[in-house]
Design a protein that fits this description.
- The protein has 263 residues and is mainly alpha-helical.
- It has two domains: 65 residues; 183 residues, no CATH class.
- It has ten helices and no strands.
- This is CPBP family intramembrane metalloprotease.
């Protein structure tokens, strides 16, 4: 068995183990933790942290010489990621303040779960592990690396509605969002904090303003969201071109890379 096939088999097995562990144990762990600590926010973090064990184990098996912090890309500068995300999503803050009212009654624990906790763990699972490891340590290109992860990322958001039209909108928006988050993660020198902070700010503004009941949104909600995405893309492109930094994602790396890209 070749090294690459062994890598992919263990990787897939590890993710499948995580997936079913999360599917059947997450809510149980969360409920137990909430009864124990009387905090749904802490329970959410604990449940996510425990269900991450199969992914951490998988990384140690397939890439034992690498540190987990490096593999999950959380060893980069938080300030850089925060700054790009804050500047880019400021459009949402301004736009939403003009068109939507601030929610008067905010559940702090729910806000924490839907912004900080969800943004952090979803980027760890989908962008850093499921998409990032494949792109960084195999010959798979950008599009081929992100397909499965983006499909799953879109699928886990379908709980937000029962309406067929809204489900299609939710799936499409979150699928495209996953592609965007993967791109900014790769193009900021694999700094996952850029994706985490962008994810956080987008969720935060969506939560504190009375925009929409789910991610499908509405005209103004989506216009300002799209404007923020384009601004962040523009900031990254401008910075890289000004400093003569090569782009990770090019036409030559869309499907299959000519050589493995190590970082």
């Amino acid at each position: 068995m070749s090294k690459n096939i062994r890598f992919l088999l263990i990787f897939i097995l590890g993710f499948c183990t995580y997936y079913f562990f999360d599917l059947y144990c997450f809510k149980t762990i969360q409920s137990f933790s909430q009864r124990l600590f009387h905090s749904k926010a802490l329970a959410h973090v604990i449940a996510y942290s425990i269900t991450l064990i199969p992914l951490i184990t998988t990384l140690k098996i397939v890439l034992p010489e690498k540190k987990i912090a490096d593999l999950l890309s959380v060893n980069k500068l938080i300030v850089k990621g925060f700054t790009i995300a804050f500047l880019g999503t400021f459009v949402m803050a301004v736009g939403y303040s003009l068109h939507f009212s601030i929610i008067t009654k905010i559940d702090i624990e729910s806000l924490f779960i839907n912004t900080i906790s969800s943004a952090f763990f979803e980027e760890i699972i989908f962008r850093a592990f499921l998409i990032g490891v494949l792109y960084r340590f195999t010959r798979l290109g950008f599009l081929s690396s992100l397909l499965l992860g983006s499909l799953l990322f879109a699928q886990v958001h379908l709980y937000q509605s029962q309406n067929t039209t809204e489900l299609i909108e939710i799936f499409s928006i979150t699928f495209l969002g996953s592609i965007f988050f993967a791109w900014i993660y790769f193009e900021t020198d694999y700094n996952l904090w850029t994706a985490i902070c962008t994810h956080f700010f987008m969720n935060f503004y969506w939560e504190i303003f009375n925009v929409s009941a789910n991610v499908s949104g509405n005209l103004y909600g989506n216009i300002y969201k799209l404007s923020s995405l384009l601004l962040i893309i523009g900031i990254i492109i401008y910075y890289k071109k000004r400093n003569n930094i090569p782009f990770q994602v090019t036409l030559k790396s869309l499907f299959i890379k000519t050589s493995e890209l190590q970082s």
